[in-house]
Amino acid sequence: MSNKKQNQLNEVTKSNDDKAMTTNNGVKVSEDENTLTVGERGPSLLEDFHFREKIMHFDHERIPERIVHARGFGAHGEFQVYKDLSEYTSADFLTQPNKTTPVFVRFSTVQGSKGSPDTVRDVRGFATKFYTDEGIFDLVGNDIPVFFIQDAIKFPDLIHAVKPEPHNEMPQGGSAHDTFWDFFAQNPETTHTTMWAMSDRGIPKNFRQIEGFGVHTFRLVNSQGQSHFVKFHWKPLHGLESLVWDEAQILHGKDVDFHRKDLYESIEKGDYPEWEFGIQVIRPEQEFDFDFDILDPTKIWPEDQVPVQKIGKMTLNQNVTNVFDETEQAAFHPGHIVPGIDFSNDPLLQGRLFSYTDTQISRLGGPNFNQIPINRPVNEVHNNQRDAMHQTNINKGQVAYHKNALNNNDPHTTAKEDGGYEHYQEKVQGHKIRQRSESFKDYYSQPKLYLNSLSKDEYDHTVDGFSFEIGMCNSIMVKQNAVNQLNKVDRELAERVAKNVGVEVPESNEEVDSNAKDSQLTMEKYDIPLPGHSVAVLINGNIDIETLKLYAQTFTENKLNYAFVGQHPKNISESFGITETFDTAHPTLFDSIIVLSDGSDILPSVEEFTELTYKHNKPLILNQNAAQALSKSNAKISLEAAGVFVSDRPQTISQAFNRARYWDR
């Protein structure tokens, strides 16, 4: 984060270190445990201004949570472009490779409330605030590149359908209920995004290992006024990982904060999450060259056809000081853009440009939300806007209008060539109508493309995702209609889901006749780097301290997160020990396990821990004694299975942990 942005945040940072307690008016407080009363047991007095102020502020501490994306967590960082992109844009932060731009990123789920679990099946928000020298650019996207609807007028309907059903306020945090799947079946434009959400993409492993997408088509405009259509991408340098569904469900109870804790602890340890910023570019003359409409937010631009150019890198390297002041009060808006970036005619984007200002006014109490430190630009603000709720500026001078002579017409406008924003001059004509473009009405080709691009294991998991969610519906009609929609994408998918949820397979095969694929859509294309991997070392019996130190040294050298787990906590030496027990640790909280045994019989807790890790297809390393003992136990694992390694060498981790899951187990 830049010093200027940090100074803004520090302006309102309050520390209680060695400070006398005062009221908000600055009066020192002599006592803070008892209200003012008449005698020890008498009535309280209205004149107790300290109590009145304290309880009033407490009564109003909470602000309305976001209608969607309420459950979120954020961090600060920086962005730097790799090369000068003046060919495409005049945006300062994209044309100067020597410039570092501070950023703030907020990750979130969509459906659930602030108190819902992190690991539900859902789309994740990926919103980035760039504090550029020309103003704030907000890239308000998701971890899935497409959206459920094509026109913003349907957004209230989508959210009403996916939110907890109003008659009983259930279920919280997920889409596995009748109203969502009824909406899905009656609105075929939702098919593509739902396909992504029901795949492994809907249950990411953590925030560090998700992709980010701007979703919409934007424009980049260079200094000559030339425009290119663009889509924005974030590519994670930590790899791309997901949970398995059973694991995600267990984590709801084991650690409701699993994702936010991972992000927070990674940054605290210096294992900074990183993404490469990418763009897909289509020249104006190519606008109609594809078998999809490039303005349709339910369509991707297949990367095999329009490659992603890696243009920069973002690093998140600082946790927030206060979650409410920063993460909760952060006001994102897709209409916050800078010179060199402009909008397309995507109807969903156009509606979002209107909606987000209303949202911030409702949540943050008025139009001055951009004066909150987290929302302030790093460059100075000068305009004639005045007063309103929560005004924190003290505006000086006689004049608050444009044009004026009393103040030499300040603040004055700025010409485009000097950095003033000017919209791209697109020629637009037509009749005023309410009608969807015919080019938006292919609802099934790209869902089929997505399915074709998945590995066999990813396809099977998608079947499981649909089966669970549709199976949770009460209405047979809703289940049948949902399966009928799947039948228009892929016959095998419809048949398998129909069998699993107990409805009829549609009589005729209506699937899209296409073998088209995009090699970039499978999650298996990503390598998983060793740093950041977490491992639980299970202690079965007495293992000498030198062996444990050797493992710890290997983990540290490879930047792994680790915990030694035993029956009881134990300080083996002054700075070393068994820090977790089988009561506090759980296999879903780790990426892998190592079992170290002295030859004793396998403890029931070790057996249970090992079986669940094996079931979730994670890497397992067993020392020779542990392998022999497990082979004689009732543990339901095979020592010959993929991803099970028998070794007494700590260095085996480099071989065992180069895959996140062994699906062929």
Automatic annotation (TrEMBL):
Keyword line: Heme, Hydrogen peroxide, Iron, Metal-binding, Oxidoreductase, Peroxidase
Enzyme nomenclature, EC number: 1.11.1.6
Biased composition (Polar residues): 1-13
Keyword Zinc: no
Superkingdom of the organism of origin: Bacteria
Residues covered by the Catalase core domain: 22-410
Keyword Repeat: no
Summary of the function given for this chain in its UniProt record: Decomposes hydrogen peroxide into water and oxygen; serves to protect cells from the toxic effects of hydrogen peroxide.
Name used for this protein in its record: Catalase
